[in-house]
Write a structure and sequence with these properties.
By secondary structure, this protein is an alpha+beta fold. Helix content is about 55%, strand content about 15%. The chain is built from 29 helices and 19 strands. The strands form 5 sheets. Strands 6-5-7-9-8 form a 5-stranded mixed beta sheet. A 5-stranded antiparallel beta sheet has the order 11-10-14-18-17. It has a 5-stranded antiparallel beta sheet with strand order 12-13-19-15-16, with no helix packed on it. Strand 17 (about 650-655) and strand 18 form a beta hairpin. The radius of gyration is 29 Å and the shape is globular. The two termini are about 25 Å apart.
């Protein structure tokens, strides 16, 4: 008798359609508003700016920008994992408008996450309805929705690969074949290139734990073979990712995260232990802080708690342990587990927000809830009555809580959930309806509960509201000189500045170059002049001899009075972006000493002519009548190289964070080029590994082996 195929069009089409529909409903507002963007703080202020800069630079300069000169007086771009330059789905931002591409990539990854979760649960022999139940919980839980609302783009992309990694590692632990190695290494590389190192690192910890759990519980004879295949898979994943990994490590070594964040910094954004249970039962019992949201539905929690603990199949002991461990880790120092990991597991100290470990708690909860729903028809009558009693208690509790907090929508959501689930369980107990229909009612009830949160949380904002068109900003647009802006009160955020192609001395990045931050926050009175700050924006009037007021934006209050809200000043004494200062008679004088001597003379610096200024290169010409220092007020970072008249030249640091060259008398042609060795070596390793990897894939395909 021919064995029935596990994965036919009859078993995948309907679930895929349902999962796609769930993703569409979660992102209904942004998907149906192509001229709007998700109203997310980080998405607008950070990710929109990065993606817009990335692809506007590609269109303008016809090269991938490895360096970003638009904020912090220059910052690595290719080494920044948030840029996601080497992630395949970044191509969507080249095809579609930047703001709508975010929505499309969110939709694709949410759908992929649901499909991966469905397949992972189905592989354990669980029915289609219960598998869909777990997939919906994994896609719609409040933590995922909260981080989408916060605009954590890379985090959601990396989150989508969790079930696929678990499928791959489970297959590797049971069949350490070439196909399994190829599957795990490919998914692992995509997970890393998605651009959230913390979630990738946590994924590897959980995958490693699951791998060892399987090979220890299933009594494998040749465990060395299994362990070797696992290590080879991780190594291949990292080799494919070297084009990002090596530059990122270099950036980390020269950033404010070098050496780790310290215990206090790493344990920030944890869940208070006393608040854990209320947050688990009521989605907004405390607040709506997206780092601390953990709600995945009361019905799934109820099913997990009431499922019999005897004869746990399908590695459920591991997922129960994972749920408990993720909960304790998320509580930071109060849970105890985070402290153990911080001091004994390398790498944990570089990350903050231990509450993010609960992404894996959501994964474990979705898996356990699917098992519980699949076994619900076999619950004893007593256990079903306990479920019904719990629903009644929840109904009464939600009514009291909604009256106390004046949140009628919360009561309505709980009422629908309790009534539909209660009817389904009650009918199942009395055998009035088919068990499959009862399970469908419970799935629908949970989807309504979690979907209501998504509908309430995810909002959009029109792009014309995100990018204002004040005449204040248009003045900057029509200035064709090379200059920077100093925004004192965040009146000109970086997502607005990048649309006007305007560089700032500040910005918004979780990782920064400490020497630069120390300088702009220091007490140097020449700082705005030195950094080529031509315009200063403030919400308060300023007074200085070098400031000339250029424009004021007024706001009309309720009484009809005009109130000034933004002031634009021009710095009449700002230095050029690139300038020359003579070297004192002491030929061994450092650039800092030469600049101090120049500043004491109170003279205007001689400008050097910038022929070409792109993200990856700066070409300058100048004529010096004596030995001089050429100073470029862009950040100095490993990878910047200089040529003077076609010959390599050493770049000297000035004011710790900027670039200087010692030039001899005569006509000079200078070129600054960003060619980081870490990127070149990483790219070479990645290309070589990809050639080998694709050769193996083609070999397997030719042998008609499913990957």
């Amino acid at each position: 008798m021919r064995k029935k195929a596990f994965w036919t069009h009859n078993t995948w089409f309907a679930p895929l359609l349902c999962i796609s529909a769930v993703s569409f409903l979660i992102l209904y507002a942004p998907l149906t508003s192509p001229k709007s963007i998700l109203n997310s703080s980080d998405l607008i202020s950070c990710y929109y700016y990065i993606k817009y800069f990335l692809f506007s630079s590609i269109r303008t300069h016809h090269e991938i920008p490895l360096w970003n000169p638009m904020t912090f007086s220059g910052f690595p771009c290719a080494a920044n994992p948030q840029a996601g330059i080497f992630y395949p789905f970044t191509l969507f931002f080249l095809i579609f408008s930047v703001h709508y591409a975010f929505t499309l990539v969110f939709f694709i990854h949410l759908t992929g996450a649901g499909c991966g979760m469905f397949l992972f649960i189905r592989r354990k022999g669980i029915g289609i309805a219960a598998s869909l139940f777990g997939a919906c919980i994994f896609m719609m839980n409040y933590k995922v929705v909260g981080h989408i609302e916060a605009g954590h783009f890379n985090m959601i992309c990396c989150y989508a690969y969790i079930p696929w990694l678990m499928i791959a590692v489970e297959r590797l632990a049971k069949m350490p074949t070439l196909r399994s190695i190829v599957l795990f290494s490919g998914v692992g590389a995509l997970s890393f290139l998605a651009g959230h190192p913390q979630l990738f690192y946590y994924s590897m910890i959980v995958c490693g734990s699951y791998f060892f759990y399987i090979i220890l519980t299933e009594n494998h004879k040749n465990r060395r073979k299994y362990l070797l295949s696992f290590l080879i898979s991780i190594v291949i994943s990292l080799l494919i990712s070297m084009v990002l990994l090596l530059p990122m490590c270099e950036l980390l070594l020269h950033s404010n995260r070098a050496g780790g964040a310290g215990f206090a910094g790493s344990s920030q954004s944890h869940i208070e232990l006393i608040q854990f249970l209320p947050r688990l039962i009521v989605p907004d019992a405390i607040d709506t802080n997206w780092e601390k949201t953990i709600y995945f539905g009361f019905l799934p929690l109820l099913l997990i708690v009431l499922t019999p603990r005897k004869n746990l199949r399908g590695n459920r002991r591991f997922f129960l342990t994972l749920l408990i461990a993720a909960s304790l880790f998320s509580c930071g120092q109060q849970g105890g587990l985070f402290s153990v990991f911080y001091y004994f597991v390398p790498g944990i100290k570089f990350f903050r927000a231990p509450a993010r470990m609960f992404f894996f708690g959501e994964f474990a909860a979705a898996t356990l809830a699917a098992f519980a729903l699949d076994e619900l028809p076999s619950f004893t009558a007593k256990r079903r009555r306990i479920c019904l009693l719990s629903l009644a208690i929840l109904f009464i509790f939600s009514a009291g809580y909604s009256i106390y907090t004046h949140k009628s929508a919360l009561f309505l959501r709980y009422a629908i959930q309790c009534l539909t689930a209660g009817i389904g369980m009650g009918m199942m107990t009395r055998n009035r309806i088919r068990k499959s229909l009862s399970m469908a009612i419970i799935v629908l009830s949970t989807c309504i509960d979690l979907g209501a949160i998504a509908f309430h949380t995810l909002r959009v904002v029109p792009m014309n509201a995100v990018i204002p068109t004040h005449s204040l900003f248009k003045r900057l647009l029509y200035d064709n000189e090379i200059y920077r802006v100093w925004d004192l009160n965040n009146q000109f955020p970086q997502h607005v500045a990048i649309r006007f192609n305007t560089a700032k001395i500040s910005g918004y990045q979780p990782i920064t170059i400490p020497e630069y931050i120390d300088y702009i926050q220091g007490n140097d009175p020449l700082m705005p002049h030195f950094l080529n700050v031509k315009y200063i924006i403030s919400k308060n009037p300023l007074s200085a001899p070098f400031l000339s007021e250029k424009n004021v934006i007024y706001h009309t209050d309720d009484s009809g009075n005009s109130i000034p809200t933004m002031f634009l000043y021009e710095n009449t004494q700002c230095f050029p972006r690139c300038f020359l200062i003579p070297v004192p008679q002491d030929n061994h004088c450092s650039p800092d000493r030469a600049f101090e001597y120049f500043a004491e003379q109170n003279t205007v610096p001689v400008s050097a002519h910038i022929v070409k200024y792109t993200p990856n290169s700066v070409l300058v010409t100048c004529h010096t009548v004596a030995q001089s220092y050429l100073i470029l007020s862009d950040c100095l970072f490993p990878g910047w190289k200089a040529e003077v008249n076609g010959k390599q030249h050493r770049i000297l640091p000035v004011k710790t964070a900027f670039r200087a060259l010692l030039l001899q008398e005569g006509q000079n042609r200078i070129g600054f080029y960003f060619r980081p060795d870490s990127l070149l070596i990483g790219g070479f390793i990645t290309c070589g590994t990809l050639i080998f990897y694709m050769t193996v894939v083609v070999y397997l395909l030719r042998k008609r082996v499913k990957i």
